[in-house]
Structure formats: structure tokens, C-alpha cells
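FAQ: What does a ligand-bound record look like?

Like this one, built around adenosine-5'-diphosphate:
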Amino acid sequence: MTALGEAPARSGDAQIIALCNQKGGVGKTTSTVNLGAALAESGRRVLLVDLDPQGALSAGLGVPLYDLTATIYNLLGRSAPPIDDVLTKTGVENMDLLPSNIDLSAAEIQLVNEFGREQTLSRVLAQVRDRYDYILIDCQPALSLLTVNALACADGVIIPMECEFFSLRGLALLTDTMEKVRDRLNPRLNLLGIVVTMFDRRLLHSRQVLARVAETFGDRLYNTVISRTVRFPDSSIAGEPITTWAPKSSGAEQYRALAQEVIQQSAR
Ligand code: ADP
Ligand code: MG
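The answer part, i.e. the structure of the complex:
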């Protein structure tokens, strides 16, 4: 029962989370894979959506990019195939993938002339929303029409941020874009939090940046901080999330802790 005055309970459909930052190399893809795997490990049904034509998410899960016959690109176009033809199982139990490859780079141009072009992804995901608890969208490093599609269907945004001073620049542009999307397309859109990645506690610089982010974003900063370790690139080369490739590593533990924070937020 929902108490009077409380927001109505979610309908049991997946919570859609976009991992977004227009800067490249900040840990979006790494966070999508590993947060997803950690959520799946705690029994949640997870769908990962690769919305970057670079296909790093798909590659990082061992999907052979150039052998794919159908990808998210086909689902966004006219005469889309059945979504089940594109859904791919990953090596992680409870975690599926909508893969992409370089084909997706054509979507931007094709979508421009479509009616309701910002809501195309939303219509695609609506078909499977009841099968999952979380849908995580790995965005490309640009505030493009594809990224706007992700923001237009997301309930929440997680911003991965590399622990570097210059990473703070550009966040205002991203939050402005989110504001516009909220006003014009998707009033549900909400900043879930910033997750600092590639943190090196030995460096004064790292500690200073973290302090600054905490000061700026307050409780919008996740308590979990992801350390810099070569185990992340190594696990993507192995085509696995760190939670299965090095299950006892601190990197795996950090993404498990982040998953618990995200689960707590959804319960609110
Ligand atoms: P994005 O998707 O934002 O471009 P990635 O997740 O692909 O960023 O990360 C960029 C590079 O940094 C990749 O080679 C990835 O393996 C590496 N990386 C990501 N997170 C970490 C980390 N915490 N420590 C060390 N390397 C990392
Ligand atoms: Mg990426």
C-alpha cells in the first residue's frame, strides 16, 4: 500500500538509467558493464543498451562486433526486426545486451527527419521494459540526438566523472542539456548521481578533485568512488565484467557497493 502523499509506486517496469557524460574516456562504458553485472549478481534482471557507435560496451562483453547481423541501429530504423532477434545474452546470468557497432553512426542522420525523433529509443525499450529491473544505457561521448534519445526515455542519469580537475568543466553543459530535456521531453528525468572514477588516493590532486566535487554536488555524489586500476582495461580485453573476471578485486567490490547505492535509491 502506498501511504497518502507518497509518490505512487513504480509499475514494476524497469528503471531506465542513462550513463552520460559528453567527455570521452571517463568510465561510462566501464561503469555500465560493471554496475550492470553487479546488479545482476544481486538478482536483478538487467538489460544493457550500447548507444555508442564505437561499440565498446559490446566489445567489452566479448561480442564480435563485425559479425552482428542486427543491432540497436536496426531497431531504431523503419521496418525494425523483432527486438528478440537483437537481444543478446551475455556471459553474466540475468544480464542481456542490445549491442551496437559502427552501423549506429548512420542513425543520427536518419533520425533527424523522423517524426518524434527524440522518442525513438523510448518506443524500442517500451517493448521489453517489463522483462527487466534495470535498463542501463551506455551513451556516446557527445550531446547528440542519440544521447538525447537516451535522456528522453531515462528515469535517471548517472554521470561518471574521471577524477581530474578539468573534468569539472563541461558538467554544466550536461546539466543544462538535462534541464532542457526535462522541460521539453521527459519530466521524470532525474540526476541520480555523479560517480567519480579513476581515483588514486596516493595523489593529492585526486583527493583535491574529490573534495571539490563533493563540495559542488553534495549528496548527488555517490559515496562509492572507483579507483584507478589496470584491472578494468584488462577485464574488457578478456570480454568480461570485473565482477566475474576478478571477483575478489577492489574494483569488483567498488561496483558492488555502487550497485547497492543504486538499489537503495530505487527503493526510495
Ligand atoms: P568512456 O565510456 O567514458 O569513454 P571507458 O569506460 O571506455 O570510458 O574508459 C576509458 C578507458 O579507461 C578504458 O580503456 C577503460 O578500460 C579505462 N578505465 C575505465 N575505468 C577505469 C578505472 N577505474 N581505472 C583504470 N582504467 C579505467
Ligand atoms: Mg564508452
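Follow-up question: can I read anything off the structure? Yes, for example: The CA atoms of residues 37 and 92 lie 7 Å apart.
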